[in-house]
Amino acid sequence: MYPTRETLLARAKWMRANQTEAERRLWSMLRDRRLAAFKFKRQQIIEPYIVDFICLGRRLIIEADGSQHADNKDDARRDRFLRGQSFQVLRFWNNQVLTEASAVADAIHAALLPPHPPKPAAWAPPSPARGEGLESGHLHG
Length: 141
Prior knowledge:
By secondary structure, this protein is α+β, with helices and mostly antiparallel strands.
């Protein structure tokens, strides 16, 4: 049985007021569009879950995990659900956030950027196999 919306709202409010040190560090990186001008929210409800940080514009969720998350089957089920909702989920151990903040910020930034699109066909060299670049039987470069 999942919690009610009211229970989730109360829990999210409590979580915002009682962040871990790692969550505070992440929030200082993400708030006020500090990371590449992307907007993040914290302790956002995606029923039936509450996610630590989310960029709705890029459908990216960031989670800060303590030791209670090691080999946690509930987290795996939760991640499958969120991915099924078209979200990408990045998880960082609390100690990573606290000791490797720059690397964590770089990983988040990379996830926010769109993947490089394939080169358009117009950029490709002519292909004789497709009948391109042929004029009077000679290739043009």
